[in-house]
Design goal:
Strands 1-2 form a two-stranded antiparallel sheet. It has one domain: Four Helix Bundle (Hemerythrin (Met), subunit A), CATH 1.20.120. It contains 5 helices and 2 strands; from the N terminus they run ββααααα. The protein is mainly alpha-helical. It is elongated, with a radius of gyration of 16 Å.
């Protein structure tokens, strides 16, 4: 993942080898870029972007955890689950505490969270790539 003036850009070496997860990650990058483009906007615009981002992150994490548990097993599934919990807790806290226009503090919190999420995507989630390579890219547990 590279950060450009226009936002983050997906790079193919970040593929984990599962179509659902990779598609979700690409969409997350789009949502992150949308949130960041709304940081100077009104409260309603930023809140809407954050809500869309938060809802999708919930869906993605749930979907990903099922795939990882089925394909990778423990302890990686537990490690990723715990990381997801921590990320969601932080995001919920930011959303709860930072109602109002995009103040400097709110922007810093949101950008800090996005940075943490990027580290998670790059470092932790690429750990599942070797296990996922043993399955079809379309693998999805029932």
């Amino acid at each position: 993942m590279t950060r450009t003036e226009g936002g983050y850009q997906w790079r193919e070496q970040l593929n984990v080898g599962n179509d659902l997860i990779d598609s979700d990650h690409k969409h997350l990058i789009e949502l992150i870029n949308r949130v960041q483009s709304c940081l100077g906007a009104s409260e309603g615009v930023l809140t809407s972007a954050m809500n869309e981002f938060s809802k999708f992150l919930d869906v993605h994490f749930s979907r990903e955890e099922k795939i990882v548990r089925a394909a990778c097993g423990e302890p990686l599934a537990q490690q990723i689950y715990e990381s997801h919990l921590a990320l969601l807790s932080t995001l919920r806290q930011i959303q709860k505490e930072s109602r109002g226009a995009a103040s400097g503090s709110r922007i810093q919190q949101i950008n800090g969270f996005i940075g943490d999420l990027m580290v998670h995507l790059i470092k932790q989630e690429l750990l599942m790539k070797p296990a996922l390579s043993k399955f079809s890219p379309s693998f999805a547990p029932g």
